[in-house]
Write a structure and sequence with these properties.
Length: about 170
């Protein structure tokens, strides 16, 4: 008898349906705003405005925005998360950009995040792209460790320090 954990069922992906889009959009926009506020130092209202602007600019045609795939991740018929990828030009190079990957809270720690990122690599290859890029906020140590374990390297790190009692209001 082996002590090895059971194998992780392979992920399948389906396109996000029209009836799922509004809830997904609000969830992602709100989460992005929280990340901006917590990790970017913006107040909640400014973070919400930036998140709304960025999402509108990135998905101007919603589900019909060209070169974007909003994918529901499933394992054995059970929803386990979402993957949003799209073609993007970065430094004059076409790449597959991971706009968002989120594993549902109850499904975390089971290897689905790794599988989702490997799926993103498959999508890139299927589009003739040889690079995957993403942004991760500095406070997301679990995700950063996962990406490093898959061979991703940090290309830039933005840092900041708030100065208490500086007399400057935000």
């Amino acid at each position: 008898m082996s002590d090895a954990p059971p194998p992780i069922p392979r992920l399948t992906a389906r396109r996000l349906r029209t009836d799922e889009y509004a809830a997904w959009y609000r969830h992602v926009t709100d989460g992005y705003a929280r990340d901006i506020a917590v990790n970017g130092g913006a107040d909640a209202a400014a973070a919400a405005r930036k998140a709304d602007r960025d999402m509108t600019a990135t998905l101007p045609r919603g589900l019909e925005t060209p070169d974007h795939d909003l994918l529901v991740l499933e394992s054995d018929g059970l929803r386990v998360g979402i993957l949003w990828v799209g073609r993007r030009e970065v430094d004059e190079r076409q790449v597959l950009y991971v706009w968002d990957v989120e594993i549902d809270e109850a499904q975390r720690g089971k290897g689905y995040g790794r599988e989702a990122m490997l799926l993103a690599e498959e999508v890139a290859r299927s589009r003739g792209l040889d690079r995957v890029e993403l942004n991760v906020f500095g406070g997301n140590d679990v995700a950063r460790a996962l990406y490093r374990s898959l061979g991703y390297v940090e290309r830039a790190v933005a840092m900041a320090k708030d100065l208490p009692d500086s007399g400057v209001s935000r």
